[in-house]
Amino acid sequence: MRLSQVLFSQGFGSRRHCAGLVAAGLVRIGGQVVDDPDADLDTEGLVFEVEGRAWPFHAQALVLLHKPAGYECSQKPRHHPSVMSLLPPPLRERGVQPIGRLDEDTTGLLLLTDDGALIHRLTSPKHHVPKVYEVTARHPLTPEQLQRLRDGVVLDDSPQPVRAVAAEATGETTLRLTLTEGKYHQVKRMLAAVGNRCDALHRSAFGALTIPDGLATGQWCWADPAAITPSR
Ligand code: URA
Question: Which superfamily does 131-206 belong to?
Fold first, then answer.
C-alpha cells in the first residue's frame, strides 16, 4: 500500500493532507524519515511514526477504553463530554463507535471499533457474549435477591424475563453480575426489580477481555478481536 494511502486509512486526514505530512518529512518508518508519499509498503506488522508518535497499522481498529464516570457513549452527548474525546484524532477520524453503551456514571471496560460487522456480532443477542459487572448496591444483598437475579426478572419493556448467567455476592452490598444481553440500563433495572438499587457500576470484563493492569481510568489501548471470544 502507498504510504499516503496508509496514513489516510489510519485516520490521519484527507488524502491531500496525508501526502503533505509525508512530503514534509513528518513520517518515519524504522526511525528513518520516508518523504515519498508513493513509497510502497507491506502493511503486515507495519509501525510508522507521525510527528514522533508511533502508530501500528490496523486494517480495522478495535480499542479498549477504561471509561471514567462523567462521559457519555453517545456521539452527540447532551450533558457530559463524549467518550470519543478521550481518543486521539486518528481514531475519531476513522469513525470508531462503542460496542454497546455504558451509562454516563458507569466506569470500566468499553470497546470501540470501526468494524461494523464486529459491532453487529458482539451486540447481537444470539452470540451471548458475557459481560461482567461489579455492582455496589444501596442495601445489603439477600440470598433471595441473588437467586431472583439468576432465575430472571421481568422488566417494564418486555414480558420476557431477563436473567443473569451468574450473580455472586462479593461483599455485603457488592455483587458480581454476568449478563449476556445488553438492554438499556439493564443492571440498574434488574437491581430495582428485586427491590434493591444500584449505587455504582463498573464493567470488569467483556467476553474474555479484562482491563489490562496499569491501564488507568481514561486511558485506552489496542485490543485483539480474537481475544474477546477465544474459543470461537
Ligand atoms: N447496565 C446498566 O444499568 N448500565 C450500564 O452502564 C451497563 C449495564
Answer: Alpha-L RNA-binding motif (3.30.70.1560)
Q: Is 103 a catalytic residue?
A: yes
CA of 103 to the centre of ligand 1 (A): 6
Atom of ligand 1 nearest to the CA of 131: 8
* CA nearest ligand 1 atom 3, residue: 185
Whether the CB of 186 sits within 6 Å of ligand 1: yes
Query: Of the listed 36, 40, 103, 157, which one is catalytic?
Result: 103
Instruction: Reply yes or no on whether the pLDDT at 232 is more than 80.
Output: no
What ranges do the domains of the chain cover? 3-56, 62-125+208-227, 131-206
Distance CA 161, CA 201 (A): 22
Fold type of domain 62-125+208-227: Alpha-Beta Plaits (3.30.70)
pLDDT digits 0-9 by tens, 152-208: 999 998 899 999 999 999 999 999 999 999 899 999 999 999 999 999 999 999 999
Sign of CA dihedral 91, 92, 95, 96: positive
Phi, psi of 46 (to 5 degrees): -70, 130
Please report where in the chains the cell 470461537 appears, as a residue: 232
Question: Cβ(102) to ligand 1 under 6 A?
Answer: yes
Q: What is the pLDDT of residues 13-28, one digit of tens each?
A: 999 999 999 999 999 9
Say what the pTM is.
0.94
Which grid coordinates are listed for 96?
470508531
For position 231, what pLDDT does the model report?
Answer: 63
